[in-house]
Design a protein that fits this description.
Blueprint lengths: L8 E8 L9 H17 L3 E8 L2 E8 L5 H18 L11 E4 L5 H9 L1 H4 L5 H11 L13
Antiparallel strand pairs: 1-3, 1-4, 2-3
């Protein structure tokens, strides 16, 4: 990459466990978030926030110009899934993911949103949350196929 390459590519990534099952135990969540941070660091991603619940994760990442969103998510999911298996959990992420660009001026807002997932999900489910994010981002989707397995 050229010495004088500059970028500001911030992405809010969201992915759920297979069939949105509650397979991320509360006692392992902080360790899983820390492991995801380690993977992100290895990929030279700037990690701004990580959070989630028993059935999904949110990451706010700054992508370097040499890493695609698809590559970053694939490596995050594959390595963290393996790590969960090593901790005795039959674990799989759902196929696919959501990735939404974030303006630098909104990083703090998204960061707070991700850090307050537990409180947020007292009010609505992951499915409701994900639909709302898609709609707010202007993403077209087929509601009947959105959570089909």
């Amino acid at each position: 990459m050229a010495q004088h390459t500059y970028n500001a590519n911030f992405v809010h990534c969201v992915f759920s466990t297979k069939n949105r099952q509650k397979t991320i135990p509360a006692e392992l969540q902080e360790s899983l978030w820390a492991y995801l941070l380690g993977i992100a660091n290895h990929l030279s991603l700037k990690t701004i926030a990580i959070g989630g619940t028993e059935n999904h994760v949110h990451l706010l990442l700054g992508l370097p110009p040499t890493v695609t969103i698809a590559e970053a998510v694939q490596k995050l999911k594959a390595n963290s899934s393996r790590w969960m298996g090593e901790h005795g959990i039959d674990f799989h992420w759902q196929e696919g993911y959501g990735a939404f660009s974030v303006s630098p001026s909104l990083l703090e807002v998204v960061q707070q949103y991700i850090r307050n997932q537990k409180e947020h999900h007292c009010k609505r489910s992951f499915e409701q949350e994900f639909r709302a994010i898609l709609e707010k981002s202007g993403v077209c989707y087929d509601g009947e196929k959105l959570f089909a397995t």
